[in-house]
């Protein structure tokens, strides 16, 4: 690790007017240091270093700017550097300014840094405050995220995790839930478009944001989100629906967007997204109104066919939990809101033990699935090799 003299000497090279070759060697060396936890924490505790790195993000050399951003990503991954980055280095204003530049080459790196800085609630509030105070506003962040091709040089996928982090704050959830802004409608529409286009990294971000939002939002909002005003359900169900032929009665009970799907309809490829969508619907069933709407909208036939198709053990478990709610009886009076039911400590411990056992079983089944797939590939390879050998023999 650097001592104080070496730190001071190295800092002298981190200036815009330093010779490019020396400056490049210095930033490359510092980036290497951040691969070590102790060195990373040491540099993260030096505001002068952080300020110098931020200054060099304006350097004319793309390589130097890239090294600086990657260094800041590594430093921001450690929570010990968050306060110095936000308060002493004042990193948020320049980062937000560059993020909104539609031609900025390193917007993705900025998204990653902001996502790292917003993981913990304390610094998340600082990020949210800066978004509001710097004239950016959460509405602008959502607009940029929902605009396909906003920045041709960056995908901006990590705006999804940033929004997901921000929803841990009541003020951010209140903004997204504002019925006049219809922000949530834009988010779940973006998710559907991205799923259908197989932009997995981005659709994963939106699904994660949606799940986090549902978990933290008050259950009273669920009925509104399921109402015709927002109509969230088709956007959650469509990626899970397949080409299977349903009866006329089953089709008629479904939302219009899910009726009589074509033979080439394909389900979401990413199992994590499938699982998050199902868990989001499970959250919607925590209230009586939510359960009634999901039953009325005929969710069960879609999930029944999905269960036949699904191979991933943990997704199957989530699906079975949802199906149990859809076909089960209503809870007794006074227990309609499952999020507010008081569970006795001894019963909670039993549930925790069952959950732990379930996780072990899921891991076992996943290992068996992976082993089976590997053996299947090996058999195919062996068969092809035999065919080639047979062909060579015939050629002789």
From TrEMBL:
State what protein this is by name.
Answer: Protein HGH1 homolog
State the residue spans of region: Disordered.
Answer: 362-396
Report the superkingdom from the record: Eukaryota
Task: State the InterPro entries in the record.
Answer: ARM-like, ARM-type_fold, Hgh1, Protein_HGH1_C, Protein_HGH1_N
Pfam families according to UniProt: DUF383, DUF384
Tell me which stretches of the chain form a coiled coil.
none
Q: Where is the Protein HGH1 C-terminal domain?
A: 280-333
Domain named Protein HGH1 N-terminal is located at 99-274
Please give the family membership noted in the entry: Belongs to the HGH1 family.
PANTHER family membership: PROTEIN HGH1 HOMOLOG (PTHR13387)
């Amino acid at each position: 690790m650097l001592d104080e003299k070496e730190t001071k000497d190295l800092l002298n090279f981190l200036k815009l007017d330093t010779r490019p070759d020396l400056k490049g060697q210095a930033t490359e060396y510092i980036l290497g240091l951040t691969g070590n936890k102790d060195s990373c924490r040491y540099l993260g505790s030096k505001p002068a270093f952080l300020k110098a790195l931020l200054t060099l993000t304006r350097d004319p050399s793309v390589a130097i700017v890239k090294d600086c951003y990657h260094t800041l990503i590594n430093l921001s991954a450690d929570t010990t550097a968050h306060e110095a980055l936000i308060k002493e280095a004042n990193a948020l204003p320049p980062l937000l300014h560059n993020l909104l530049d539609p031609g900025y080459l390193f917007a993705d790196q900025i998204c990653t840094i902001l996502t790292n800085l917003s993981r913990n609630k304390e610094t998340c509030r600082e990020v949210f405050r800066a978004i509001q105070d710097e004239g950016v506003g959460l509405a602008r962040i959502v607009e940029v995220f929902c605009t396909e091709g906003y920045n041709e040089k960056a995908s901006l996928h990590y705006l999804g995790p940033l929004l997901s982090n921000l929803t841990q704050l009541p003020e951010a959830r209140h903004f997204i839930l504002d019925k006049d802004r219809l922000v949530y409608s834009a988010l779940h529409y973006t998710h559907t478009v991205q799923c259908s286009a197989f932009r997995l990294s981005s659709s994963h971000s939106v699904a994660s944001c949606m799940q986090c939002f549902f978990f933290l939002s008050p259950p009273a909002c669920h009925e509104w989100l399921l109402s015709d005003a927002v109509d969230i359900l088709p956007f959650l169900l469509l990626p899970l629906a397949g080409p299977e032929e349903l009866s006329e009665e089953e089709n008629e009970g479904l939302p219009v967007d899910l009726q009589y799907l074509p033979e080439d309809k394909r389900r979401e490829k990413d199992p994590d997204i499938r699982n998050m969508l199902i868990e989001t619907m499970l959250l919607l069933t925590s209230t009586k109104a939510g359960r009634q709407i999901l039953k009325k909208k005929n969710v069960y036939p879609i999930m029944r066919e999905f269960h036949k198709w699904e191979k991933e053990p943990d997704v199957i478990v989530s699906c079975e939990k949802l199906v149990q709610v859809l076909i089960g009886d209503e809870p007794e009076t006074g227990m309609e809101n499952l999020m507010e039911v008081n569970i006795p400590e001894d019963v909670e411990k039993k549930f925790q033990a069952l959950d732990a056992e379930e996780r072990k079983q899921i891991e076992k089944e996943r290992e068996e699935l992976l082993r089976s797939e590997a053996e299947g590939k090996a058999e195919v390879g062996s068969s092809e090799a035999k065919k080639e050998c047979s062909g060579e023999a015939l050629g002789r």
